[in-house]
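Please annotate this fold before class:
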Amino acid sequence: MHNKEENLPESLIEMKNILVRKNNRTILDSISFNVKKGDNIAIIGPNGSGKSSIIKTITGDLRPIADTEEMVFKILKKDRWIISDLKKLLGIVSGDLQLDYMRDISVVEVVLSGFFSSIGIYPNLKIEPYMLKRTADIIDFLEIRHLADKNISQLSTGEARRVLIGRALIHDPMILVLDEPTNSLDLKSKHKFRETVSKIAAAGKSIILVTHDLEDIVPEINRAVLLKDGRIFADGDIEEILTAEKLTELFGIPVEVGKDKGYYHAWC
């Protein structure tokens, strides 16, 4: 898989003292969150803790309140972006996106549509030969060639999510963002999905994984950020952060943590 990461600056995302409000409610409070080249990050927290809000702030779907001189928000060292250009730098896979794609659109068209940020391919779109080659390369890399001629609506939830990863990778984004990626997947589909994520990380792509399930955290992830009530509760090396003590305090119930073959497990 082609990767542009060697050309990226050391600091990919810099957020300092970020405040976000929605419907007169504070959803992110004094957030300071940096992503450096080589970071593979798991963002973990209870429902409503602000996990997805951080992602929506990075993508421009939520805007921080600039009420302090100390606020910093830069992506690739720039503080102003055209949203469409910004989203080409971020490959995003979410359950909401999958719902948008539950139509009679072929797998090839789904992956190809990433070039146009569209839902499917429209007749007026000009498809260049390099786009078709990139689409074929991504399909082969993700080992979904056997699905290529099927409609995404015919696929299992797990298969469809892997296809959407292909769409997200089409621009060779600087970061692949996975927002609660294994929701509604069965055990076999979760296993295959995690294998796919590991393969992408091993190929050098930075990953931000948003989850409340520790079993989603593939061994290549090296950093964990814990969120609670819209604030960062802990941030650091994954071995130091994913402890029984910290997770017990985070979730408010007694939590035990184990690790087997590089994967974390938590139970009450």
Notes: The longest helix spans residues 187-202. The domain at 1-39+49-89+218-268 is CATH 3.40.50.300 (Rossmann fold). The mean pLDDT is 90.
